[in-house]
Structures are given as structure tokens and as C-alpha cells.
Write a structure and sequence with these properties.
Number of helices: 9
Largest sheet: none
Radius of gyration: 20 Å
Order of helices and strands: HHHHHHHHH
Structural class: mainly alpha
CATH architecture of the largest domain: Orthogonal Bundle
CATH class of the largest domain: Mainly Alpha
Number of strands: 0
Length: 190
């Protein structure tokens, strides 16, 4: 049975992702991916002109899945504070799960403006989503985006270290949000 183009592209991405995670960018070659996908190398090149393009597609697709998972989980929560906590916890899990891809990405020099833009889009999406959640609390709007950046940065740092401090980190964030929201983001600071 012949697969449709979207199905085959998805299959290639499903096969390539764990290979990049387990073996690293340099150790994976297009022939291995094509063999595991049970397609000709030429067919693989029809979908992805080179391994680098495939790697970036795997990276972006993985983060899209994370965003979908976060959105689904957040939609089940009532309060903005619960949504923010779930968002950060899922971000933490994603960084740990995808550590190999992130490390491989750091090894690659971002060669083109398009590559840099693709990574920035993921970062920007994270910041905007969290900022929007913060904006739905009683915090003053001008503090939401800077706070989103701080929370993502600190969560990434804890995740990057695979720290045993993650529980304490999330308790601190919960405490911080409770206090910020209770004080309405220092609206009277002017």
C-alpha cells in the first residue's frame, strides 16, 4: 500500500526524531533514516533536501507537539495561576525529554537567517503564550512579558541542569505568583 505524502513525511519525522535524540546529529545519516523508513534515499531527499533541513523540521515539529500538549492541559484548568503552573511544568518536561535535540542544536552553528528565525519563533511563541496567561491575572500588563521571560529562563535553567531542585522551583513560582497576583503586580508603584 502506497502512503500519502503527508503520511510519509510524518513517518520520516517519527523515525528521525529518536535517531537524532539517541545518536546525535553527526552520527545520523540520510541512508539510515531512509532504511528505517523503508523508502529509497532519493525519496527521502524529495521531502528533505539535506539532513540539516530534516533536523530543523524534527525540532520544530517536536515543539509544536509540546505546544499542543500544553494547550490541551491548560484548557482543563480553571484559574490562570493553575494554567501558568501547568505551562511551566510541561515546558520543564519538554526540555528534559528533548535535551538531546537541544544539545545538538547548540552544536550546530545557525548558518542562515532562516535557521535563526525558526528558533526565535519557538522562543517567541513560548514567551507570548505565557505572557498572555499572565495577562489574564490581575498583574499589570507591562510586567507580564518580562515576567514570562524570567519564568521561562529560570525553568529552562532548572531543566537544563536536570536539577533535583525542580520541585522547589515550582513551589517558588507558585508562591511568587500568589504574591504578585495578591499585590496586583505592584500597580501602585509609580
Amino acid at each position: 500500500m502506497r502512503r500519502s505524502q503527508p503520511e510519509l513525511k510524518e513517518r520520516i519525522l517519527e523515525i528521525a526524531a529518536p535517531l537524532f535524540l539517541q545518536e546525535g546529529f553527526d552520527q545520523v545519516d540520510m541512508r539510515t533514516i531512509s532504511r528505517r523508513a523503508d523508502i529509497a534515499v532519493g525519496t527521502l531527499y524529495n521531502y528533505f533536501p539535506n539532513k540539516r533541513v530534516l533536523f530543523f523540521e524534527v525540532f520544530e515539529t517536536g515543539w509544536e507537539e509540546v505546544f499542543n500538549r500544553i494547550n490541551n492541559l491548560c484548557s482543563q484548568k480553571e484559574s490562570s495561576q493553575e494554567k501558568i503552573k501547568v505551562f511551566l511544568e510541561e515546558f520543564h518536561k519538554a526540555v528534559i525529554e528533548r535535551r538531546g535535540l537541544g544539545l545538538e542544536l547548540l552544536k550546530l552553528s545557525l548558518e542562515t537567517p532562516e535557521e535563526k528565525s525558526r528558533i526565535r519563533r519557538i522562543e517567541q511563541n513560548l514567551k507570548e503564550q505565557l505572557s498572555e496567561m499572565l495577562n489574564k491575572t490581575s498583574l499589570e500588563e507591562r510586567y507580564c512579558y518580562p515576567l514570562a521571560r524570567c519564568l521561562l529562563s529560570s525553568t529552562w535553567s532548572v531543566s537544563k541542569e536536570n536539577s533535583e531542585q525542580a520541585d522547589l522551583h515550582f513551589k517558588f513560582i507558585d508562591w511568587l505568583l500568589q504574591n504578585l497576583i495578591a499585590n496586583k503586580g505592584a500597580k501602585n508603584d509609580e
